[in-house]
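Record 1 of the preview.
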Amino acid sequence: MTKKRILLLIADAGYGHRSAAQAIIAALADYPDVEAEVHNPLDGEDVPAVIRKSQYQYDKFVQNMPELYQQAYEASDIPIVNSLVESVATVALYDILRRTVKAKQPDGIVIPYPYYQAPLAAYFSLSETSIPLMTVVTDLATVHRAWFNPVSDLCVVPTAIVAGLAQESGLPMDKVKTIGIPVHPDFGRTYDQAALRQRLGWATDKTVILAVGSDRVSNIPRMLQPVNHANLDVEMALVAGGNDELYAEFQQTEWHQPTHIYNFVENMPQLMAAADCIVCKAGGLIVTEALAAGLPLLLVDVIEGQETGNAAFVIDANAGAHVTEPTELLETVYHWIQDGQLPTKQSYARQAGQPHAAKEIAKLAYELVSQNQPSSDAVKQLDNNSILDLFARFGVDTEASR
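->
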């Protein structure tokens, strides 16, 4: 039996794009005639170092220059500026993606990342290649127009708000599917919480606060200090998310509450299922994972512009709060516990969650590659002479482009 090859293209600008791709991979396991692979084309040894390293500077850029990032994000969302950004992406990434597609020979491509569509459209046009392509958007409300390139045969969005943005950007509504952000199926599983806590070595009779950091989110020790010194019957589980400096700070801090410390973990679905609430950033993936697990959120880091909509989605769903000061976090936790609000917040979180989105997206991807015929006519409308002129001006090898 010849298997259908589905290629999921990501970049490691933050961890969310990879998490979304891995969730889809897990769901595609239901299709034995599919061979699926997650691939980051920017990690190739022959990729220029400046491009390869740029994706890993994302968190530092956001953390160290948030206002500049917000201004750049909002400016690049203007149609004419976005066109310029897509031209830059096409010049920079064209040959990388051309070589990736020729080497992998996929029957379909799924992209939970916004900047590969334009260079792929140029490659499809110049090489007269037809490969079904699906984009999967990974933010809940405030979404950049770069996601909505018409080269995609399908664009999967998480909410009606984003579907409206896609339509405003010019995507036909028959290309837009409102499903959700894909999370690993384990986030939607029902667990025996007491048994799970016993396996983890956590208390079964305390409120457990899970706090998740990352390379970008390093303010968790400061935000938790009032809780650490409060007379609350809580236990804390702290995850550094692979941030070694944060992990060391966790270990060096004198914790007065019972505390479990982890660096990078691969059992996040189980940690979320065992916890009662979560302290984290407002990234699209971790927010969606927490909601799928029925976990109320205390958002301590929100990128203005890009993640504002994610935070608003949580607040509007009554599934959490955006807290900017340590005392505000303490007050919120105190009232959730003392006023008996946690069960209600957990119920609202579960209602807002979309735990089965990955399975629905996998089904769409399977159907798309099974059709063997891309539906998008956007590639046919591209002007090859304009593409070749762009490449000539910037020294892209047009002979290799065929």
